[in-house]
């Protein structure tokens, strides 16, 4: 499949995990790529892992820095002459599991500035170009944590719920310009963000428990999220906008009561 031939795709958080898998998938399908991250080493590695022959540019950007985001989008357009797909994927867990009574505003500000403001800022600047082109697709990486509680601290969960709602409001803002906006909501996936959880489970002989309460009885792989992102970004999803697609092994489909599974 060459669904992204002659398309320019900008991916944030491309230096690791789901973003890296998405970059590799898009490259295989013909995309010309602008890969963005604040981690230079990670970006380098992603670029190296991408299939030979793909056109790849990388930029070190903090997605919460408006001036840097605006410049990155300008450079993308200056280099490629177009911008067709934006994957707002950068995100941090970085929070704690404090109850609201113990929670600090600082924790919320740190997480929201990356997970929410970063999505808003790239959408703001990228969609101006998409409007000019009369077409575009934006895919935001939210989380099951934005649908239910229990998959992250309160700051992380609220930031991801906000991304889901922002997906809807920006789909309404941009639909008249033929720009589609959708979100994926991954369940547990082994990436840089979740590595401590996986390391702990393996060190304590608890790996079988990871993802065991999902209906598919396992955790996910970055490539499985990347294929859903690629679907939403492609013309295969041409009549979808404003949707949040859970890619979570059935986790959010279930009440997930302890003791109800074998
Ligand atoms: N791994 C999971 O289980 C899981 C589940 C649900 C949602 N997600 C979401 O998936 C997305 C990708 O995360 P991942 O799991 O691949 O984790 P990851 O840590 O492997 O990748 C995240 C990338 O984002 C980059 N990043 C973080 N803050 C940034 C900033 N301010 N500016 C630019 N880049 C920044 C990091 O450097 C990193 O390369 C995130 O939005 C995350 O919340 C992950």
From TrEMBL:
Task: Please indicate if the UniProt record lists Transferase as a keyword.
Answer: no
Q: Which residues form the signal peptide?
A: none
**InterPro entries given in the database record:** KR_dom (IPR057326), NAD(P)-bd_dom_sf (IPR036291), SDR_fam (IPR002347)
Give the record's keywords alphabetically: NAD, Oxidoreductase
User: What positions does the domain Ketoreductase occupy?
Assistant: 7-177
Fetch the PANTHER family from UniProt.
DEHYDROGENASES, SHORT CHAIN (PTHR24321), ESTRADIOL 17-BETA-DEHYDROGENASE 8-RELATED (PTHR24321:SF8)
Family in the record: Belongs to the short-chain dehydrogenases/reductases (SDR) family.
From the Swiss-Prot or TrEMBL record, give the protein name. Answer: Ketoreductase domain-containing protein
